[in-house]
Design a protein that fits this description.
Blueprint (H helix, E strand, L loop, with lengths): L3 H59 L6 H17 L1 H8 L1 H27 L5 H75 L15 H59 L5 H28 L7 E4 L1 H19 L1 E7 L6 E4 H17 L5 E9 L5 E8 L29 H11 L3 E7 L3 E9 H9 L3
Parallel strand pairs: 2-4
Antiparallel strand pairs: 1-3, 4-5, 5-7, 6-7
The chain binds adenosine-5'-triphosphate and magnesium ion.
Amino acid sequence: MKTIGSRLFVLLAICLAFMLASTVFHYENVVGLKDKLILMERFNDLRDDLLELRRYEKNVFLAGDLGDVDKLTSYLLQTINTFDELKDQIKNIMGAQTFKQYRSALEGYEKLAYRGIDSERRGTIDYVNSQIREKGKLLNEYTDQLIEAKRSRIDQAINTILIIPLIFFVLFLAVFAFMLMKARRNISKPLSILRAATEKVSRGDFKQIQYIVDRGDEISACINAFNKMTQEIKIRQEQLLHSRKMAAIGTFTSGIAHELNNPINNISLLVETLTEDQDLTASERSKLYQDLMTQADRSTEIVKGLLEFSRTDQEHLERLSLGDVVDKTVRLVKNKMKLQGVNYEKSINTPLKPIWIDKSRLQQALLNLLINAIQAMPNGGTLGIAICAGDAPDEIRIDVADTGVGIPAERLDSIFDPFFTTKKEGEGTGLGLSVTYAIIKKHGGRITVQSTPGKGTIFSIFLNAKANHESEQNPA
Ligand SMILES: Nc1ncnc2c1ncn2[C@@H]1O[C@H](COP(=O)(O)OP(=O)(O)OP(=O)(O)O)[C@@H](O)[C@H]1O
Ligand SMILES: [Mg+2]
């Protein structure tokens, strides 16, 4: 009986039990009241008989009207009969003691009445008159007492009928509130924990849910399944990461070999020509030396890029405005943009306070993005830089957007890998984005990319101004 379904069933059963109990109770009370009202009518009959009896008692004993003797005896009999019929109920209401007194008063009255009738008929003087009136009064008092007691019982029954549904309602509310609290604790709370954990998964956090328990219901099963799923995803992700790492190392090493091989081959060919060919003119030799220098420079460029990529030395942090760094970097490619017919747009949508950055590295990271953007627009276009607020408070975002060729979705995962390039041999080493990525990471930031093939690409750099502010107190 631990599933949510069975719990709902129990809740429903409790509600029904409450309704049933209150209906039965109410029904019994109403039936009881009805019986009491019927009995009250019978008691009223007894009083009416007694009143009639007392009227004829006056006629016979006070006025001496012997014509009413029959009526008197008939009502006397009727009163006694009614009393006998109701004796159990009377005893129940008045108690045994008072009932006894009531009955002996009635018996006394009967005796006195027959004695008085006898004397009246014989014309003898008897002093029964005043006694019979006393007894009659006493009977009236007992009957009034009986009716009063019955009325107060009826009032009590009506009050019970009015108050019991209220009591049931309050009890029901208390039970319902208790069940609701339990449902909140056992259903709502774990569900909201599950929802929060699912949202974390969508952000790449595969932490397991620590919340309880094996209660054996659907929610525990859900949490267990969720934990299993995150564990599985984590394992798969690690496997994927490992295979991506291996692929990246493959690209990396073959990239280094390939990139360095070309200039080295060229250098050895040039040296060979210079040493073996004695017929070379001075200008030809000077041209070959120039080529030699170009090849050596290319090798140095590749090694520099590699060093930048794996640089672990301290940054040189300065407190600078991002706007200035952006402007200075753009200046370096202004000429290139002009030649290629690329328009430049800049917008700043957040207050720019100076933050701690390594100027030359951040410039290099931006430069790589700018060069890529320009290269992606061989027939011109627009290069836009926007500085705005990031996703989190204290985060600043720099967007570098172009209207170039774009990047196909299946290539997005590889563009930050070292030596990944789609450019022709000699045009690109494939180190630009990996260097940019490493620099932004060093700054405690992150970089993302969105691209639509044929429409353009946006690279977004997120820098944490707060982290930089912390380094303000303790600059490296
Ligand atoms: N703005 C962009 N538009 C379209 N493709 C891009 C853009 N930026 C990068 N790419 C793609 O990502 C690849 C990797 O870029 P990365 O800067 O790392 O190397 P590269 O530009 O090819 O060579 P290098 O920067 O070393 O001269 C590029 O070859 C290109 O295919
Ligand atoms: Mg590049």
